[in-house]
UniProtKB/TrEMBL annotation:
Keyword presence, DNA-binding: no
Name of the protein this chain belongs to: Chlorophyllide a oxygenase, chloroplastic
PANTHER family referenced in this protein's UniProt entry, alphabetically: CHLOROPHYLLIDE A OXYGENASE, CHLOROPLASTIC (PTHR21266:SF19), IRON-SULFUR DOMAIN CONTAINING PROTEIN (PTHR21266)
Span of domain Rieske: 225-325
GO molecular function term, any single one: chlorophyllide a oxygenase activity
Pfam families assigned: PaO (PF08417), Rieske (PF00355)
Keywords for this protein: 2Fe-2S, Chloroplast, Coiled coil, Iron, Iron-sulfur, Metal-binding, Oxidoreductase, Plastid, Transit peptide
UniProt-annotated location(s): Plastid, Chloroplast
Coiled coil: 127-154
Principal location: plastid
Length: 542
């Protein structure tokens, strides 16, 4: 029938701590002041001074200046980015002020309930009078609670507007000439909503045109260190064949145990060298027995005199349990990136999977988490609810950030790596609002090596900061591989469909939205690289 004192205090404390609106309550029994400003009528609720004084320390929570007099004024019809944000912030401030008045109204109603039930006053009131007064107060409280639910929707809209404006500013989509404000200047939330609709309708969208058959890879994309295999897959007497930028290569270890990478084609008759064997640190062709060292020099030619023959080789190094090559013509950079899992994590699985899709399409997919509750319904996202709003929050200049509302941090690391840390409570379950709030974590590394225009070599490493005993369970690696392939197959059927339509001319980035931010930034980075820009976007030095 009435709102308890503890509940009232909880609402007040929450409103003060968060400075967010809670309700839009109107009371017919309390004294009101009607104000009209700019054609907008507001009913502000105020109690009697003596009743407010009863709240002692609480009263300061409601001593907030009416923000309507500070509504942002615009000169002309156009808003710049800063003014657009001010309009959105005004909505939040107005809702906060409105909420404080509504909470005060509920508290005053609570005081009236207490007064009606005061045993000292019962001697002067009949039971019928008390019942009537309580019924009236109950009706008013019911109306207040209904307004609370209405206000929740308004608050959600205001917050979405602010997030939307912030997105536009961060991505430089909001131009001075693009945001036409309403002809009728009004500080009401409803008018601000109409303004936002106008912005959305008239705002020119940032163009991304990824369509048509995949073009040959630009030489600038090759001038990076690329991880191509895990160290554990290359023994002293084994080879690892691979394709990189549509050229065949083969890895093997020399006499000193150091890795080498040479062209996977014999200089004699173009036989694939990986069909042969490794003898004393040299790779031997199975056709006529020619043998090559790690720098590509042919050191042995059985049944004929030794000619000066050398096949192409690439700079190759080993670091952090991975084998790296430099496929470009430019001079290799002096340092190799580090892809070690964070401190406290142990590696549990390392997998290599060949996929029949272009590596950029696979990166687009890995940099997108919003698709999970729709695509991965049989694997890790089974049972996930669909959030009302998914965002990727990141610095204005950066290729890393975190997902909201998912407790997942993510980074794109040029040229083709995706790193993510997922906060979990137990396998398959998410918890908390950020990775720092979670007690256990899973760290993932995806390397998307461009094998050819229609094929990607995926290197996947999974690490955990819990359950170290899993490393010692037999055949656990097969279980991880089975699960990874299940997840990839859910994605693969969709990405293959995209690739087919892209090759026929469809634009796979036709209409990017808020949660596409990291994927869009990857495409912008790659486009700038291929155009030869001296300063690449989102780099740490920019």
């Amino acid at each position: 029938m009435s709102l308890s004192a503890s509940n009232a205090m909880t609402i007040v404390a929450t409103a003060a701590a968060l400075s967010l609106p809670i309700s839009f309550c109107r009371s017919t029994k309390l004294s009101t002041r009607k104000g009209v400003k700019g054609g907008f009528r507001v009913f502000a609720v105020f109690g009697e001074q003596s009743e407010i004084e009863k709240k002692n320390g609480w009263s300061t929570l409601f001593d907030v200046e009416d923000p309507r007099s500070k509504f942002p004024q615009t000169k002309g019809k156009f808003l710049d980015a800063n003014l657009a944000l001010e309009v959105a912030r005004y909505d939040i401030q107005y809702c906060d002020w409105r909420a404080r008045q509504d909470v005060l109204a509920i508290m005053l109603l609570h005081e009236k309930v207490v007064d009606v039930l005061n045993p000292l006053a019962r001697d002067y009131k009949s039971i019928g009078t008390i019942k009537k007064e309580l019924a009236e107060l109950q009706e008013e409280l019911g109306q207040a609670h209904r307004q609370v639910h209405i206000s929740e929707a308004r608050v959600s809209t205001a917050l979405d507007k602010l997030a939307y404006m912030e997105e536009l500013v961060n991505d430089k989509l909001l131009q001075d000439r693009a945001t036409t404000y309403s002809e009728e200047a009004s500080p009401s939330p409803s008018t601000s909503t109409q303004s936002l609709d106008t912005v959305k309708r008239r705002l020119p969208r940032k163009g991304l045109n990824i369509s048509g058959p995949v073009q040959p890879y630009h030489p600038r994309l090759k001038n990076f260190w690329y991880p191509v295999a895990f160290s554990t897959d290359l023994k002293d007497d084994t080879m690892v064949p691979l394709d990189c930028f549509e050229e065949p290569w083969v890895l093997f270890r020399g006499k000193d145990g150091k890795p080498g990478c040479v062209q996977n084609t014999c200089a004699h008759r173009a036989c694939p060298l990986d069909l042969g064997s490794v003898n004393e640190g040299r790779i031997q062709c199975p056709y006529h027995g020619w043998e090559y060292s790690t720098d590509g020099t042919c050191e042995k030619m059985p049944s004929t005199r030794l000619h000066k023959v050398k096949i192409k080789s690439l700079p190759c190094f080993e670091k952090d349990g991975m084998l790296w090559i430099w496929p470009g013509d430019g001079p290799p950079s002096a340092t190799l990136p580090s892809l070690q899992p964070p401190s406290g994590f142990q590696i549990h699985a390392e997998l290599v999977i060949e996929l029949p899709v272009e590596h950029g399409l696979l990166l687009d997919n890995l940099l997108d988490l919003a698709h999970a509750p729709f695509t991965h319904t049989s694997t890790f996202a089974k049972g996930w609810s669909v959030p009302s709003f998914v965002k990727f929050l990141t610095p204005a200049s950066g290729l890393q950030g975190y997902w909201d509302p998912y407790p997942i941090d993510m980074e794109f690391r040029p040229p083709c790596m995706v790193l993510s840390t997922i906060g979990i409570s137990k396998p398959g379950k998410l918890e908390g609002q950020s990775t720092k709030q979670c007690t256990t974590h899973l760290h993932q590394l995806h390397v998307c090596l461009p094998s050819s225009r229609n094929k990607t070599r995926l290197l996947y490493r999974m690490s955990l900061d819990f359950a170290p005993v899993l490393k010692h369970i037999p055949f656990m690696n097969f279980l991880w591989r089975h699960f990874a392939e299940q997840v990839l197959n859910e994605d693969l059927r969709l990405v293959l469909g995209q690739q087919e339509r892209m090759n026929k001319g469809a634009n796979i980035w036709n209409w990017p939205v808020t949660y596409d931010k990291l994927g869009v930034r990857y495409r912008q980075w790659r486009d700038a690289l291929e155009r030869g820009e001296k300063q690449l976007p989102f780099s740490k030095s920019s």
